[in-house]
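Sequence, please.
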């Protein structure tokens, strides 16, 4: 069995957290490897689940209202010495064979820094991504395409990632706040440092899609921050046109209609070492595209 610590992150949702604990126990991972980590803004989860967790042999930890899920993750990872770590959410449900499937993939490689499979949405099956054969070794290009082309909930599989503990700790230490794309910054950090990220075609869980998901809201600034980060870290390795090609995929037609000079300046300042002539050509091209859209 994988040497793993499984944190179930909960915030004000007792019912979902309880179900996730029960599923984790049923998966056979081992009760001593499961920690219910409560970062709620009130005491309801503690009142409802602390006794339940203890009765099941699962450790219960009450946090001091950490501001973001990534602060929560960072706090958790500092407490474990296991080789791998997983952060399950209280509104998602794992498949019972998730850990055995991950173990098969891990055993195929000398070292894996992160692995994830396909997910369902609210119990319904949709493809999260197209895997080749049994698994795909994720390149920078594949990662970016997944996030830029994935403007729908079926591409949201981050809660089911299993991480090498040392790799996710390093990524969290250098984490960038990109709003809804913050998970992208973690995976980007792992890949650009030479880490191995694997996508398997196995279905590993059901993603809970609802109005409170970060990814259910359009955030223009978060999308621009994502492009900024990509440019800051990778622009010298990527062709100018390809970077801006990805940039266009982040926005819908309606958003491009309203794309203004202030938005462009936010991105442009990170391209100072790219030929100014190319910047000017891009600005002119953007104006032509907007005119065509408005016709």
């Amino acid at each position: 069995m994988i040497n793993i610590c499984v944190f179930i992150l909960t915030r004000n949702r007792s019912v979902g957290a309880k179900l996730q604990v029960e599923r984790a126990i049923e998966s056979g991972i081992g009760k001593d490897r499961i920690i219910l980590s409560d970062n709620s803004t009130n005491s309801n989860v503690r009142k409802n689940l602390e006794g339940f967790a203890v009765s099941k042999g699962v450790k219960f930890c009450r946090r001091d209202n950490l501001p973001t899920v990534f602060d929560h993750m960072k706090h958790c990872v500092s407490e474990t010495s296991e080789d791998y770590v997983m952060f399950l959410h209280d509104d998602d449900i794992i498949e019972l064979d998730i850990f055995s499937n991950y173990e098969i993939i891990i055993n195929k490689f000398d070292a894996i820094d992160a692995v994830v499979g396909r997910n369902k949405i609210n119990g319904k099956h949709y493809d999260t991504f197209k895997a080749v054969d049994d698994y795909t070794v994720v390149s920078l290009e594949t990662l970016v395409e997944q996030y830029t082309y994935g403007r729908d909930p079926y591409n949201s599989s981050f809660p089911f990632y299993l991480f090498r503990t040392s790799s996710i700790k390093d990524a969290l230490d250098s984490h960038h706040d990109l709003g809804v794309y913050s998970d992208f910054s973690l995976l980007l950090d792992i890949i650009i440092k030479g880490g191995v990220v694997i996508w398997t075609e196995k279905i590993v869980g059901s993603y809970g899609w609802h109005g409170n998901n970060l990814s259910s809201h359009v955030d223009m600034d978060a999308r621009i921050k994502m492009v900024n980060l990509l440019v800051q870290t990778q622009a010298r390795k990527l062709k100018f046109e390809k970077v801006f090609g990805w940039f266009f995929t982040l926005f819908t037609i309606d958003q491009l209609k309203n794309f203004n000079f202030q938005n462009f300046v936010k991105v442009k300042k990170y391209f100072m070492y790219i030929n100014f002539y190319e910047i000017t050509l891009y600005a002119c091209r953007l104006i032509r595209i907007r005119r065509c859209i408005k016709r």
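The two ends are 60 Å apart (CA to CA).
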